[in-house]
Amino acid sequence: MIAVDTNILARFYVDDAADPEAARQRPIAERLMREGTGVLVTVTVLLEFAWVLRGFYGFETEDSARAIEHLIGLPNVTVEDWPAVLEAVRLYREGLDFADALHVSRAGQCERFYTFDDRKFARRATKLGVVPAVQVP
């Protein structure tokens, strides 16, 4: 099994004609992701990947959510804690920031998830009935 970094995923999912390195790197990324006997994508890489898709490439919520779901569905790819990732994708589509959704979905065994400054996150999570409850102390 191999593990991949965010930039491998970005090259696999984004055909960036404006980047001269893309022409060289994209075929390598495609080979690694499609032909590898086992590919591990850690939660931290996935979190960064979602940020790169939205923040750098300007993907809309639905497009980045579909990319993550596609990644989970690849037969030779193992996404760390994929049930929590799928829950995070669901919450992301419902209006939570992907990072917040992933944080709270991975804390499912807890009774509460506290945050100091993110009242918007707490309000949206409450509206969605997220478990654990998100609260500002």
TrEMBL record:
| Domain PIN: from-to ranges | 2-125
> Per its UniProt record, what Gene3D superfamilies does this chain match?
5'-nuclease
Question: What Pfam families does the record tag this protein with?
Answer: PIN
**Region forming the signal peptide:** none
State what protein this is by name: Type II toxin-antitoxin system VapC family toxin
Protein species of origin: Candidatus Accumulibacter proximus
